[in-house]
Each structure stands twice: as structure tokens, then as C-alpha cells.
Write a structure and sequence with these properties.
The protein has 4 helices and 7 strands. It has about 170 residues and is α+β, with helices and mostly antiparallel strands. About 30% of the residues are buried.
């Protein structure tokens, strides 16, 4: 994972997808502002493969867009399960005004972001504080995109606070 690859060509996207499917992590430079301020334009991120059953609300996913085939890196805000296995995922960019189309995980999820490199420092997204922040950001996005789900968001946040305060 030491090599750095810039660009967004179809060949690179295909290579990224294949490496992740083979269980290898990749490090690359993020492009765009859809995840600002969590991931800023041109920051380096590390994506590793993930088991679907390990996905959590708040994780930042790398997935292949069904239409454009581009690799997208957005936050997971909702998981629908069938027999405890995620069957449908809803994601959104932290800085966007609408959620992404639903993702069918087995076909399109490539991995999850575990690290962001900012100003010469590594930010570990798996730390307890960063997991709490990620979960709260996902709740805010869910609240913004699905205002009828206010009760669900309030319930999620209160459960999280009870866990943290114990």
C-alpha cells in the first residue's frame, strides 16, 4: 500500500476494484468535495476490503456507481438487512444535498475507508472518538434526507449516548 496512484481513468478504477476484490488495500488521492470536511479534495485515503456483515452506519464506503462505474467514497447512513446480512445500503456525501441511489452491497461495495492523511498526519477512522463522530454524522444525514424518520434518529443518538456514558 505504499504506492500512490493519481487519476480517475477507467483502467485505474478497474484496477482498484480488482485489488480490493482480491483482499488488498489501496491508498489513493480523493478527488472532489462531496465528503468535506471528513475527506478534503486531494487528501490521501486508504481503502480496505470489508465483510458485508461488518458494515456499520457511519462507515465511509468505497463503492462502484451502478451507472457511471466510477468509484465513489461516501458515508453509509442506512442499512437494510435480510437474515442479518445487509441487502440494501443507503449512502450520502457529507457535503451533498441528497442521498445516493440504493447500493446492492454484494455487487457494488468495494471496501471501506480506514485512514485519511491530512497535513502530514494520519487520521484513524476506527478509533472510538472517530467512530462516534461518524455515527453522529450519519444520523444528521439521515435526519436531513428523511425528515419523517426523526424518531429513529433521536432513538439512535440516545442509544449511542447511553453506551458512551456507561
Amino acid at each position: 500500500m505504499k504506492s500512490i496512484v493519481k487519476g480517475s481513468s477507467a483502467i485505474l478504477r478497474e484496477l482498484f476494484g480488482e485489488l480490493l476484490k482480491e483482499g488488498k488495500g489501496i491508498r489513493f488521492q480523493a478527488r472532489g468535495c462531496s465528503m468535506y470536511p471528513s475527506i478534503r479534495n486531494e487528501e490521501f485515503i486508504t481503502v480496505v476490503p470489508v465483510e458485508l456483515t461488518e458494515l456499520k452506519v457511519g462507515d465511509i464506503l468505497a463503492f462502484q456507481d451502478k451507472e457511471s462505474k466510477k468509484i465513489v467514497v461516501h458515508r453509509l447512513i442506512k442499512i437494510e438487512k435480510n437474515n442479518r446480512v445487509p441487502s440494501l445500503l443507503i449512502s450520502a456525501g457529507d457535503n451533498l444535498s441528497s442521498p445516493d441511489p440504493p447500493i446492492y452491497p454484494s455487487e457494488y461495495v468495494l471496501g471501506k475507508v480506514i485512514r485519511v492523511e491530512r497535513d502530514g498526519k494520519e487520521i484513524n477512522l476506527g478509533s472510538k472518538l472517530n467512530r462516534i463522530q461518524a455515527y453522529l454524522k450519519a444520523c444528521v444525514l439521515l435526519f436531513r434526507f428523511y425528515p419523517n424518520g426523526k424518531r429513529r434518529v433521536i432513538s439512535r443518538v440516545s442509544r449511542l449516548l447511553l453506551r458512551v456514558l456507561r
